[in-house]
Amino acid sequence: MLAKTPSCVECGLAWGAPRFKHEDEAPLYWSDTGLLCSSGCAQTHFAKRRAEGTFAGVPAECPVEV
Ligand SMILES: [Zn+2]
Fold first, then answer.
1. How far are the Cα atoms of 12, 20, 34 from residue 49, in angstroms, in the given order?
2. What pLDDT digit, counting tens, does each position of 24-47 carry?
3. Residue 3 Cα, ligand 1 centroid: separation in angstroms?
């Protein structure tokens, strides 16, 4: 389930913030639970998900409409 105003699920950085890594209008990192602002947050997030056993092996659809 995605928030209407997406932000990084790890650090809470808002989508659109200058530090949020993106390619044109599309985010570079995300999971099935939301956006990730950077490779660091993505690594943290997926390591946690693996530890929890909730890691989704199938790539989620990009949550931002471009
Ligand atoms: Zn982040």
1. 17, 21, 13
2. 888 899 988 889 999 999 999 999
3. 15
Q: How far is the CA of 22 from the centre of ligand 1 (A)?
A: 12
**∠ CA(2), CA(25), CA(38), 5° rounding?**
65
Question: Among 8-17, 20-29, 44-53, which is the least confidently predicted range?
Answer: 20-29
The number of residues in the chain equals 66
Kindly give the distance from the C-alpha atom of residue 9 to the centroid of ligand 1, in angstroms, as a whole number.
7
Predicted pLDDT at 64? 72
Q: Rounded to the nearest whole angstrom, what is the distance from the C-alpha of residue 13 to the centroid of ligand 1?
A: 6
Q: How far apart are the CA of 20 and the centre of ligand 1, in A?
A: 8
